[in-house]
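The material for today's practical consists of a large collection of protein records. Read left to right, the backbone structure tokens trace the chain's path through space. An example says more than a description, so a record of this kind follows:
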Amino acid sequence: MFVTGVLLFISMPLKCYHSIFFPIKMALLVLSGLNALLFHATIYRRMAEWDNDSVPPFQARLAGIVSLVLWVGVIAAGRNMAYRF
């Protein structure tokens, strides 16, 4: 997806840039990165404690759900951007 996204942007940079889906996709990418950074900086440090629990902590599950939702949004915005020119 990274390769095809870059190729799409290189082929029509102005159309991509002026698409409403381009800033949405970029914002979702930034939020995905922040979610991963937050997870690794806080929740992931206590991962050794999870071995005794039957389910992962709520914060870990929430970070996973947020990550999935953000990446689905990135994909949807990218697909819409490609077909709305």
In short: The chain is about 75% helix and 0% strand. The longest helix spans residues 58-83. The CA atoms of residues 32 and 71 lie 7 Å apart.
